[in-house]
Amino acid sequence: MGAALALGVLSGCGREAEEPAAPEVAAPTPDAAANSKAAAAIAEAEKAAGIPPKPSDEIAAKYLAALRKINPEIVGDTDPERLIDRGRDQCVTIKSFPDEPDKVLMFTNTRFSSPDHPNGLGDATAKKINKVIVKYICPKA
After folding, report:
1. Residue 15, pLDDT score
2. The dihedral of CA 5, 10, 13, 17: what is its sign?
3. Is this model's pTM higher than 0.85 or not?
């Protein structure tokens, strides 16, 4: 039996290790389903609040490029998703206060500020920002 054991040990020498089996792809977990339901609930709540849907990647890129063209400081190193969400929120403000342009500009300057301009980039720039938002982010009425 000792010889058989030694033969078994020796036969393993020089053998390349077997590659581990590829991990199995897991089926969607209940957490994934819950996250999907939560995302749908958020989208529905945003829609009910009048917040427009997120734009396509192509439209988002055009929106960000237009903001950058107005003033690169608007975009700076801000997360693009954050700028898109600010634009979506600004759509609600624009539609909620059509007869109060000063209020709309105040919100624009609050949402689109920078370290060098913590109170916004001014009303002239805010008007340009709102035109870009209406063109790219607000749904056509």
Report:
1. 44
2. negative
3. no
From the number of C-beta atoms within 10 Å of its C-beta (0-12, 13-18, 19+), residue 54 rates as middle
List, in order, residues 6 or more apart from 43 with CB less than 8 Å away: 53
Residues 73, 118: Cα–Cα separation, whole Å: 12
Look at residue 140 in the predicted model and tell me its pLDDT: 74
Dist. CA 141–CA 138, nearest whole Å? 9
Instruction: Work out the angle at residue 120's Cα, subtended by the Cα atoms of residues 117 and 129, and round it to the nearest 5 degrees.
Output: 125
Rounded Cα distance, 86 and 89, in Å? 5
CB 71 within 8 A of CB 140: no
74 by Cβ neighbours in 10 Å (0-12 / 13-18 / 19+) ranks as buried
Measured between alpha carbons, how far is residue 125 from residues 41, 46, 110, 129 in Å?
35, 27, 12, 6
